């Protein structure tokens, strides 16, 4: 029983920085997502401003739906009708 208590304390101490690690990972993911998205959109002929709006929207929608296909459909539709997709 003493081993379990010691192990539990060790896990709690280790995870005291988990929030910062998760935040750092999320920031890194967001940056990488936007860069990759922007580069892909520009390669397909999108202007930089439109690519930025689309990618900002796509990141938000991807996080909501966990589906890049759904995010793309939503953001393309929003850009076509003139909604500001940078939620």
Chain-averaged pLDDT: 83
Taken in chain order, the helices and strands follow as HHHH
Structural class from helices and strands? mainly alpha
Question: How much strand?
Answer: under 5%
Task: Tell me the overall shape.
Answer: globular
Number of strands: 0
> How many structural units, i.e. domains?
1
Helix fraction, binned, reads over 70%
N- to C-terminal separation?
50 Å
Question: Could you describe the largest sheet, including whether it forms a barrel?
Answer: none
The gyration radius over C-alpha positions equals 19 Å
Number of helical segments with 4 or more residues? 4
Q: pLDDT below 50 for ≥5 consecutive residues: which ranges?
A: none
The gist of it:
The protein has 87 residues and is an all-alpha fold. It has helices spanning 2-14, 18-43, 48-65, 68-81.
